[in-house]
């Protein structure tokens, strides 16, 4: 009866008019969504996106969503404040991230976004650059010890680099002390396990029912994992609290600039001023930023290194640019990195092929008339597939080719403004995008100055999996040859 009711409602009439894989009675598309493994699941999503471009619908056991892959439809959703609420998938992150900036909505999201934006101001990023340069140099030293091997799985050392960097910058904490290393390793493992649990749950709509989920071993595992994740962030906050001195009027705070505080200092200061934020409120933001601020940039650097290893001429051009900008192996300044426009194009192209956040989700806050004439009904979940937008032949010629020149100003000018969305767009775009690009530039610049990269994995060898962040199923292997 419920299904009949939905089918004949305003919601159902519009939803069922949208094309998509044929649903079975009662279970809908359940068997198309369930896959033996997360790499297979990843492939299936790509197949559906190609077959039904620019829009399709899926439905399983009372869960309804519409998938979008075209620039026109992405623009409709991302530019309208009515659609800023995240969809059901994000609810599964809340046991870990609470309702921090990534998962919250409405007035809470608005006030936190306003509060936290200054902690990524470019004057603070200039300060952070000291850390990115120093940590990139430490990364090079780690790679020097590994480069005699036939290859390095870059995921481990690069994740170490990005985790230490976000700890040192936004959190004002040293995650590289002897006591922290084991905990950091546990934390990184827990992030992966959490992502896997969420993916398994999203593919099994019956586990959306809390009472059923609570009876599973997955739920028990999730609560152990969340404990590990929260203990880690509690330590970060505790450590910073010990060293943080509330700045007096007109005084500098350590780890921050004259006028602006780094992210955790800003929250601690906000609380010290008597503002309405609890310790849990601080923890949910630290959880959010520690995760978003290291896992995304780590995967971006790993995929970029693999692509560069496969494109020696691109490496040569980057080296030429670095040498022209910063001669004599000097440490690049903020301005130097800004001038490295070829390096920036290479990173952009790498993020096109491997967007660290491959999809984002929203709820339609009102009916949406799509570019192809369908209506997404109010209240429906929407998945925006950034990965498929970036790989679509309607949007990019020869989409699988790595070609940094796609981002030359002349080659961009006729492209739809929503054709390239690694950092999303609109009000809920990535707050850390400038931080990310600077951190990635510093790592690649230091690595290429010290090593020539040779291919081990080819792009076609790498299978990605469905997760919160775009990841390979296994390793990302690159050979590092020291430059003499
Ligand atoms: C290559 C690196 C990165 C990529 C590709 C990336 C991508 C994205 C995307 C696509 C979103 C929108 C998510 C959504 O709508 O659900 C987002 C949001 C966000 N990102 Fe990033 N991100 C990166 C790095 C970072 C860094 C370094 C930080 C922090 C230091 C960060 C913090 C956040 C936060 C807090 C949000 C939520 C913003 C809001 O809803 O107001 N990200 N990011």
UniProtKB/TrEMBL annotation:
Heme binds at residue 430. Its cofactor is heme. The keyword Cell membrane does not apply. Keywords: Endoplasmic reticulum, Heme, Iron, Membrane, Metal-binding, Microsome, Monooxygenase, Oxidoreductase, Signal. It is found in: Endoplasmic reticulum membrane; Microsome membrane. May be involved in the metabolism of insect hormones and in the breakdown of synthetic insecticides. This is Cytochrome P450. It comes from Brassicogethes aeneus.
């Amino acid at each position: 009866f419920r299904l009949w009711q939905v089918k004949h409602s305003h919601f159902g009439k519009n939803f069922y008019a949208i094309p998509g894989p044929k649903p079975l009675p009662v279970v809908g598309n359940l068997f198309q969504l369930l896959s033996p493994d997360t790499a297979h699941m990843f492939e299936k999503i790509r197949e559906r996106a190609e077959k039904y471009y620019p829009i399709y619908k899926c439905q399983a056991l009372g869960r309804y969503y519409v998938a979008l892959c075209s620039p026109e439809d992405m623009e409709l959703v991302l530019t309208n404040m009515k659609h800023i609420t995240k969809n059901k998938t994000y609810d599964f992150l809340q046991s870990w991230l609470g309702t921090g900036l990534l998962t919250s909505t409405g007035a809470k999201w608005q006030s936190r976004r306003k509060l936290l934006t200054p902690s990524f101001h470019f004057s603070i990023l200039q300060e952070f650059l000291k850390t990115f340069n120093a940590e990139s140099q430490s990364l090079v030293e780690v790679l020097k010890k590994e480069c005699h091997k036939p290859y390095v799985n870059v995921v481990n050392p690069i994740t170490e680099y990005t985790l230490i960097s976000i700890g040192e910058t936004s959190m004002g904490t040293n995650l590289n002390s002897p006591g922290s290393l084991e905990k950091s390793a546990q934390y990184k493992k827990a992030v992966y396990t959490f992502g896997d649990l969420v993916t398994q749950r999203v593919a099994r709509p019956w586990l959306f029912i809390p009472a059923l989920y609570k009876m599973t071993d997955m739920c028990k595992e999730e609560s152990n994992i969340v404990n590990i994740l929260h203990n880690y962030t509690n330590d970060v906050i505790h450590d910073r609290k010990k060293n943080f001195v509330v700045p007096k009027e007109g005084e500098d705070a350590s780890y921050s600039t004259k006028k602006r505080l780094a992210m955790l200092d800003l929250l601690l200061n906000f609380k010290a001023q008597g503002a309405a934020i609890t310790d849990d409120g601080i923890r949910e933001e630290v959880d959010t930023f520690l995760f978003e601020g290291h896992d995304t940039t780590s995967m971006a650097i790993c995929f970029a290194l693999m692509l560069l290893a496969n494109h020696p001429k691109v490496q040569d051009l980057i080296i030429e640019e670095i040498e022209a900008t910063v001669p004599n192996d000097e440490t690049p300044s903020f301005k130097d990195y800004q001038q490295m426009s070829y390096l920036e194009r290479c990173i952009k192209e790498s993020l096109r092929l491997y967007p660290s956040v491959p999809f984002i989700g929203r709820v339609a806050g009102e009916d949406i008339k799509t570019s192809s004439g369908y209506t997404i009904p109010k209240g429906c979940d929407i998945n925006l597939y950034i990965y498929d937008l970036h790989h679509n032949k309607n949007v990019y010629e020869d989409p699988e080719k790595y070609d940094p020149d796609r981002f030359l100003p002349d080659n961009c000018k006729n492209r739809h403004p929503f054709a390239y969305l690694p950092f999303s767009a609109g009000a809920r775009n990535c707050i850390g995008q400038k931080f990310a690009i600077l951190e990635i530039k510093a790592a690649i610049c230091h690595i290429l100055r010290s090593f020539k990269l040779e291919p081990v994995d080819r792009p076609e060898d790498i299978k990605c999996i469905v997760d919160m962040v775009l990841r390979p199923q296994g390793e990302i292997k690159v050979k590092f040859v020291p430059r003499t």
